[in-house]
Amino acid sequence: MSKNKNNKPVWDSRIKQKGSTIFQKVGSSLDVDKRLFKQDIYASIAHVEMLERQKIISLSVKNKIIWGLKKILNEIIKKKFIFNESNEDIHMSVEKRLFEILGDDAGFVHTARSRNDQVLTDLKMWLKKSTYEIINELNKTIKLLIKSSEKNFDTIMPGFTHLKNAQPISLAHYFAAYIEMFSRDKKRFQNNLENLNENPLGVAALSGTSFNIDRFYTTKKLGFKKPTQNSIDTVADRDFVCDFLYSVSLCSIHMSRFSEEFIIWNSDIFNLINLNDKIVTGSSIMPQKKNPDALEYLRGKSGKSLGNLISMMTILKGLPLSYFKDLQDDKELVFNSYDHLVNCLKVLREILGNFAPNKKRMLELSKLGNITATDLADFIVKDLKYPFRKAYALTAKIVNLAEKKGKTITGLTLEEIKSVDKKINKDVLKAINIQNSVNSKKSYGGTSIDNVKKMIKKYKKEIND
Ligand code: ARG
User: Fold this and answer.
1) Which atom of ligand 1 is nearest to the CA of 88?
2) Is the pTM of the predicted complex or chain greater than 0.85?
């Protein structure tokens, strides 16, 4: 910290009075954005390389700056870097330190650049890296769901609509529904890469620069696909932040729906699954309790992700072009959503590895609520060639009859069923059997065990390709 004793902001030649202490404290984003130090330094290195290639700075200045930047990188990694709140953000902190190390030559680093394009470049680079990390986390989660499915092809349970028994399903088919949801999440994150691959560096404050810079060089060097096309839009744009926060939100919502479902299934009333001790917590007063806190954690955290998305959209809603301090909050929202999502996916995997379906209970519950009434109506359509609506009405009569007799339709005798329509033949008893019902759903995407096995094979192949 020797060469430069100047601890003043870079704008002290213009702004004479010392800034408000409270605003300096709360207005600083350093605590949040220091997480971007690597991206900031790599982007600065690419920038000065480009400046030298374009003959805007000399070779010796370029070499000095790159040497200084690498020294700073090392200091931060080794935790020897002193972060000083008065430097406002990671960009000013690095620049200030560069002055301490190099003296006045450090001043060349900010030629043809503004913090406005600098912060965007850093953030997009960080988001790209983190998007790949999330996709990786999703892949691991999908693999566990595949495993859960494979163990439960012939575990039959009630499928619900309105939380009322609707039609029987294979538990594997239920897990495959979540495979679909997390696969869509993956696609959503992947799609975001297209915008994230546009390089903001070089748009400077908002209007571009009069220096003969080469934005295509920094684009290639930093792993982007092309430079952004409009300098004003680039500085003002946070759509890619919203896209990310939205993708996180939907993925969190999927986890939250799963959690809510498992919480219900884990209740003493449903008792459809058992959670291992590894993922439950006890009560401070009720000695008998084993609470599904991990699931509640997932459900709760989805609220945070949604809040972050709404915060970002609210910040943008009334904001004229181009840069305003309001935008500084984007990073806190992004980091917060990212951290929650990754933690939640890890917790979800713990849950998937530590539960057991109560198969007996699942089958027992499947016998309630005349769950194969649709199969009965379908049988009548096929066997007696009646229109579906007529078969529906006859089936409703049979359900009413069963209810009157204190039974379900599977408990009725053939004679009792025939009392509604004497043309119904004995095969009806097979059609309303629960296992047969599941296996009859052979339509593409349906729950028959053969179908589900094929689908799981497909998911497995896709994820291992
Ligand atoms: N810390 C600032 C942010 O994250 C960097 C951009 C500052 N630009 C400015 N014109 N004040 O938004």
Assistant:
1) 1
2) yes
